[in-house]
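Researcher: Hi, I'm a grad student and pretty new to this. My advisor asked me to get structures for two proteins we've been looking at. I'm not sure of the right format, so I'll just paste the first sequence and hope you can take it from there.
Model: That works fine. Here's the first sequence with its structure tokens right after it:
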Amino acid sequence: MSHIVTIQTQVRDPESISHACRRLHLPEPEFATVTLFSTTATGWAVQLPEWTYPVVCDVEQGQLQYDNFGGRWGAQHHLDRFLQVYAVERAKLEARKQGYSATEQALADGSIKVTIEVGA
């Protein structure tokens, strides 16, 4: 039996953040306090391609802090891609921790289908 699930991503797992960064060929995230134009944020800093300031993942709150000045300091599609890959990596990691197998398939529309096999 198959089930379709839609996931609203909360970024709460540093290991999955690292996996997503490696998969996207980004620098390893660093836990730091960083400047975001006129403010600071503390958490796992992820430097996206061509972004002026990093995205800061607050894993306690599950939220992101960033300043891309409405796309002028960083293209939204880079953040969207990071969140998509984070969600895939998190789902696969959790499935494997539960003893399930997980596979993924890229779809023509840019989405990713993750299949989790429960039992044989």
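Researcher: Oh nice, that was easy. Here's the second one.
Model: And its structure:
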Amino acid sequence: MTEVDSELVQQTFTAILQHLVDHGWAPHYTQLAAEFTISTEDARLALIEAAKIGIGCWTSPGTDQVGSWAPFNNTPTHYLVSVEGERRWFGQCGLEVNAIRWLFPGKEVLIETRDLATVEPIRIRYKDEKILEITPHTTVGHINNPMWKWPEIPTPEN
């Protein structure tokens, strides 16, 4: 396969996200090859192409392994995520992590982190669109770059 089939790329993108939801970690491309009954090389290429579909998906630098798949991170971060009391997920960043609740409809999602400047604990609990807790109540999100500049922000690929 020289050119990756677009349907396979979309299936790969979705399978990686679903695997993260179900298990808390991303599959290796050999797992995808077995799931789709394709060669490991086709699965590897599909993973690489799937990472290019949207903002916030990339492989770990210098590898063909999933590094991050928005809103999840495949490696530990300080954004700890629990669903219905079970902690096994890591959020990608302080804003993306809040989107995880949409992947667990009807379930309570807890985000725990620390303020990067003060190291004080921060907790946010959701159930769907309802915010159940924000501690401390003064918690705010901050991005150092204005949104209009986001297309210019370098990613691990560039």
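Researcher: Is there anything I should tell my advisor about the second?
Model: You could mention this: The beta strands are 57-59, 66-69, 72-73, 80-83, 86-90, 108-114, 121-127, 130-135.
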